[in-house]
Amino acid sequence: MTKAGRRSGAQPDWSELMRTALGGDAAAYRLLLSEMVPVLRGIIRARASGMDADWCEDVVQDTLMAIHLKRGTWDSTQPLRPWVYAIARHKLVDALRRKGRRVHVPVDDFAEQLEAAPEPDPLESRDAQTLIGQLPDRDAALLRCLAVDEHGSEECGRRLGLSTGALRVALHRALKRLAEIRQEAGL
Question: RNA polymerase sigma factor 70 region 4 type domain: which residues (predicted)?
């Protein structure tokens, strides 16, 4: 291995280059950075698909700056590449957050493929009427007014001669009786 950290015909050993650079060898540091740049560009462009080249280059430069500023925190007993890749990943995430990356897809393009709203079960109304028909007349009238005819509580109270409080109590009792009928029927 040469002083700059190259094995003949092999990729440069980034860890060895950084150790040498941290020892004061400026040439090793320049070589290390020049070796990192194309790798970082490739990683960032691949992960930031759809972003323009200038934006990606800004992220590469932010990554290189972070590496430069934090180089003293790297544990020289560990490989350098995972440390560099982690910094690149964090810088990319930060840049995407700042950009507020959102994907906007017009719904009109997919309108024919979207599911339609489910249609009501035609037997549901009949089943509800059958169960309600088993209740005492006042309870049945109250549930028909509120649930089947979908009138408001004030309207139903006026029709049945009940105050708001009395209507709530009557509704609670009617629903309790309806639940008992359903349970007895095994529904």
Answer: 127-178
The dotted CATH code for 123-185 is: 1.10.10.10
Length of the chain: 187
Report the candidate in 30, 11, 29 with the shortest Cα–Cα distance to residue 20: 29
- What are the residue boundaries of the structural domains of the chain, listed by start? 14-99, 123-185
Cβ density class 128-144: b for 16+ within 10 Å, e for less: eeebbeebeeebbbbbb
Q: Which of 187, 48, 53, 50 is nearest to 131 (CA)?
A: 187
Q: Which of 109, 89, 108, 80 is nearest to 19 (CA)?
A: 80
Q: What is the pLDDT of residues 147-183, one digit of tens each?
A: 888 888 888 889 889 898 888 999 889 889 988 888 8
Is residue 181 within 8 Å of 135, Cβ to Cβ?
yes
CATH class, range 14-99: mainly alpha
